[in-house]
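Backbone Fold Data
Goal — fold tokens
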Amino acid sequence: MNGRKSALADLAEWMLLAVLVGILDYATGPFISLTLFYLVPVAGAAWFAGQRAGFLVAVTAAAAAVTSDMLVQTPVTGGTFLWNSLSRLVLLSIAAAVVSRLRAERDRLERLDSQRSHSLALLDRGLAEPARQILELVEHWNGGINELRTMLRPRAETIAFLARDFAEIVRLQRGQIPLHRSEIDLVALVEELRAERKGALQFLTPTEPVRIYADRARMRQGLDALLALVGRTDEGSLSLARQANAAEVVISANDVRQPGERTDEDPEKVALTVELARQLFAPQGGTLDVSHNPLTRSLRVTARFPLA
């Protein structure tokens, strides 16, 4: 309601300005054209209040100009007077349409730029963690080459998915990612993630399989991204449980700060990671709820997936 009143007040101000130009037009006499000045309130209303407001102010400005011409008893009369008045109205209306279109185009470009920046941030967030893991494996691996290949493969697949094409991220945001869904055991997937991680994170899983119908690579990518929030040394847990009609994965931690990481970067990092995971889960029927307390630095993520 307040917004509507504000819009009407703004429109009234632009219309009043058009009337004031008409008064000035009357004061200057019939031999000085102030059409350029009439464009000011029309363009201002169209830019700040939209095309409809611009048209209303254009009509007001045209009416003010006609009234001014009639009061000063301009020598132009009859058909010529009517033609001049209609031409002025058409000119002001075109100006309103053009200015409002320019404003709409500027707003569209700003939204595209914001979306592009956000998509790049998502891309960076998705690539950073698997790339870091690959570097750590290459630098500190002491096992056999076959085991190293096994450890590197899922991380390389994640990077390939995100880096293959920037349009893939746009499709991800629109829910248009290609899915290869099949029946998978969520317990086995969580155990695979457990084997790849070290630190104080505790994994609590049932002994029997918990089967869901999902794209295993996308599911793994989303869960791995969420686990990256907890870090490698923070105290936390991942629990998997079978509910009435859904599998529930709960990831919790008391401190989500990475060593040497600035505190003011945490909220953005958490938000980007959660959005990436949510967009990976949503096309597969999954949901994601997050509770993040920036004061206590506690984090609780709850993901639910329909059972197969």
User: Anything to note?
Assistant: The longest strand covers residues 298-306. DSSP finds nine helices and seven strands in the chain. The radius of gyration is 31 Å.
